[in-house]
Amino acid sequence: MKMFKTLSTAVAAASVAALTLATPAIAKNFKIAVGDSGGSSQEATGLGFVKALEELSGGKHTATLFLNGQLGSEQDTVNEAAIGTLDMSLLAINNITPFSPTVGVFTLPYVILSLEDAETLTQGPIGQELTENTINDAGVRIIAWTYTGFRVLTNSKKPVKSVADLEGLVIRVPKNEIMIDTYKSWGISPTPMAWSETFAGLQTKVVDGQDNPYTTINAMKFYEVQKYVTNIRYIFSIEPLIISEQVFQGLSEEDQNIVLEAGKAATQASATFLREKEAEIKQILIDQGMEISDPENNEQEFIDLATAAVWPKFYESIGGIEKLNAVLAAIGRDPVSE
């Protein structure tokens, strides 16, 4: 009897093991908060991620985009991802900087001067180091990079071609110290405002202008409340896709690799979108009645004031002047000295 009981127990255990092996891993639908609306570079990254995720997982996993800040402000989504109540978020890198200051090196004015610079930095050792920093500092992991283009200035009052032309304008900026101090270097005090409040602020004239890339200006229909565009190009907008580190560590090793590979595909989709669509979108804005102009003297006055005042102030927060020089060296530019 005892032997029969032992045999029955062994058979039962084998049956459970076989059933476990036959049961497929749990499928997951990742929730992705997206700050911008449809037609944006953020959406292009998100769609690229979803497509690659489904293909790489054989249809087991997918993801749903919640556009236009449906799941909260971009900074709020960082907190939610950090504690594991949100899977992923697609947001401007300046909204991660308060949680992981070293990524602020990408928002220093006039550091990144082209899409190629952005690709070199984000997809190389520097991008990997910043990803590790965000994991340690903020509890989130960068898995893809959105390349949205240069932030250009828009306003509803007048053409701006020089620093002096900024006088009298009330400009909205994100709640980001580097961006605020950049405008202060040009002689005005900007108005920090949440992204979700920006369109209404422009519409009601609480603020006269804002800055964002062409793709974002079009996606958010800012042409309805803005007239003038100035190509100040002081920041190349990089918008990472982050995943909660808690969520990531809860995945199997196979699924972690799938998510990371899907992130790489999303990054490439973003670069392709910008290269193919930016000129077309710029023409759409002109057709909508916006007037686009370049600053005088190739923007040199803006560059000189911003780099002299802002770069030294943030050396410590980004990890030291050597971190900035490593970034500059990676894109073939001369180092700076104390």
Comma- or semicolon-separated keywords:
alpha/beta; D-Maltodextrin-Binding Protein, domain 2; six-stranded mixed beta sheet; 12 helices; globular; disordered N terminus
Main sheet, how many strands, which sense, barrel?
6 strands, mixed
Rg from Cα = 23 Å
Show unreliable segments. 1-24
Going across the major beta sheet, what is the strand order?
7-6-8-5-9-11
User: Into which percentage range does the β-strand content fall?
Assistant: 15-25%
Known CATH architecture of the largest domain: 3-Layer(aba) Sandwich
Shape, please? globular
The average pLDDT score comes to 92
Fraction of helical residues: 40-55%
Write out the CATH superfamily name of the largest domain.
Bacterial extracellular solute-binding protein, family 7
CATH topology of the largest domain: D-Maltodextrin-Binding Protein, domain 2
CATH class of the largest domain: Alpha Beta
Q: How far do the termini sit from each other? A: 85 Å
What order do the SSEs take from the amino end to the carboxyl end, as H and E? HEHEHEHHEEEHEHEHEEHHEHH
**Count of strand segments:** 11
| Count of helical regions | 12
